[in-house]
Amino acid sequence: MLALRSVSAAGRRCKPTALLARATTTRISPLATTLPRYQFSSIRSRGMAQVPVGQPTKPLPDKRSIIPLEHPDPSIVLTNIQGDVYPTFPKKVEQFIFFSITNPDGFREKLREFRKCITTAADVVKHLKEIEEARKKNQGLPKPLPKDRMVKLTQYQIGFSFSGMTDLHIESPGDPELMDGQKKGAADLGDEPAPESTSAKFVGEHWSQEWREKKIDGVILAASESSDTCEEAVAKAIGIFGNSIKVEIIEHGKVRPCEEEGHEHFGFLDGVSQPALKGLVKPHTGQLECEPGAIIMGLKGDDDLSFPQGRPPVATPRTRPSWAIGGSVMAFRKLHQRVPEFDKFLEENPIKEPGLSHEQGVALRGAKMVGRWKSGVPIDLSDKDDPKYLDPEVINNFHYHDPTPGQDRCPFSAHIRKTAPREHHDAPGARIPLAPVLPRALIMRAGIPYGPEVTPAEREAQKTSEEKDRGLLFVSYQSHLGSFGFSFIQKRWANNPAFPPLEENSFDDGVDTGFDPIIGNAKGVVRTRLASGTNPSLSTEEIKMEEDFVIAKGGEYFFIPPLTTIDRIGNGDKLRANEATAPSASGGGAPAAAPSA
Ligand code: N7H
């Protein structure tokens, strides 16, 4: 058996099949210098990275993007907040159980039982510590680790869509798009290939049949360190709810194999930039910071902005019903990725510069479209895939300013610059006063890849096989979808070729920024998208993308209640929108009555 296994470049063992798949999908950037593999280990793996035998045993730096403070703001009640909202579940495997409620009274009774299983923010903080301890102890051991060396993780979260909220007598916590549901808003998100004129009507040609047709009232997340633990967790949750629910769809997420762990299917390291919530997270150098209310309802910073003419923007705290405080809105999107087609596009559009090989030109074009090299190195910091920029105190320490606020290094259209335009904190001449918007437009991302690796046949054909579905189960948390959470970012920034507006800026070069090349959607039947700025020596050059590389197959928005509100739902209380309203200020609501398991 051992003879059949191979040792990867990293010294980590992979089964031959996994290696074969990786060999056909992984392109280590030709610009990458040789370095011990562990330095590339996943940030998302949250400390579960291991060092190959024979490597130095110097303690690894803690690469997690979210490091909870030892002494968090005591007014924020971590036992009352569900744990994937903050600090987000550490995981290698995750299943999303989408269900309809068949019997609301029976469901309430079962919810009282399930409540004990819900993993709170306080629990996740503990898990992260345990994982960090285990990581230190396991340093130097070969992979895969024996089961008894892994921290066993059974983590649950529950949330409700608008239709589920209606069944359970929960009124609006104050987010119109949550109450409309994602299907209704899909045309506006650009998922809809119908002509603009009919964009109000949802046809849903791109959405899968099940996502178009099923009634989704709620979601249970089960996240673990292994498939076995996750399967057990799913069986237990479904067993608890019994016939009070009907399981409509289960989506299966899993980190990619071997060196690709932590990387999404196009090959880029994911989970690198997360907001540091003030009072909860110890920020790394340069990490974007925001008030916790940008993610969690009712906390400081859960506010709206208005832009009175000729005057600075005004922030007004949102008024939330008391039962919403400590809750959040989850945006779930099943995003299919057309990996061979994306790679074909790069192959056919390499950046051509003297001294750059074809392969280097291909890698550079990809990095310019995303804003980071596949390793995670930001192109704003380095035009080479240089691992020294992977240091957690360096990897997010950039603001697109240096040396000028132009796009010589990172295109305005790059995915990470479109979705988090860091420089607009103080960009001279910026038409939209983005400085107050950006810290409110930070989302907590907690997605996981799904589907198989690209096969040799697909790679050969440069086309995704009809039987293969792979992509990202995208999850984000925010206190408000439209201002300024997921749907704001998707619609107003990624899908908007005129964002950021260049014409009034000193770096005007006469063309629109264009679409986000990764997730930007051209609404309508014609999906062709242009993006400028990806050629460093010709910023007016526009790349033309005839087809989408990322296609939304479905999704929904969910209210993720605080634990005290789960208790009230279980008890059959009617939760009114105008109940004991409280302006958002601080605190995570009352402590949960019972500690969670
Ligand atoms: Fe994106 N990708 O692989 O290209 N994303 N994303 N994303 N994304 C990021 O910082 C990707 C999607 C954001 O603070 C990285 O984790 C893919 C949606 C934001 O600098 C990479 C898909 C939305 C950031 C990717 C996808 C966003 C971000 C860099 C879909 C919101 C942080 C690594 C299949 C509407 C930006 C990292 C910052 C980062 C990719 C979806 C938003 C590599 C493949 C739908 C805010």
From TrEMBL:
Its cofactor is heme b. It comes from the Eukaryota. Residues 173-201, 577-597 are annotated as: Disordered. Coiled coil: none annotated. Keywords: Heme, Iron, Metal-binding, Oxidoreductase, Peroxidase. This is DyP dimeric alpha+beta barrel domain-containing protein. Belongs to the DyP-type peroxidase family. It holds the Pfam family DyP_N. GO terms for cellular component: cytosol. GO terms for molecular function: heme binding; metal ion binding; peroxidase activity. Residues 80-257 form the DyP dimeric alpha+beta barrel domain. The keyword Iron applies. It comes from Tulasnella calospora MUT 4182. PROSITE patterns: DYP_PEROXIDASE.
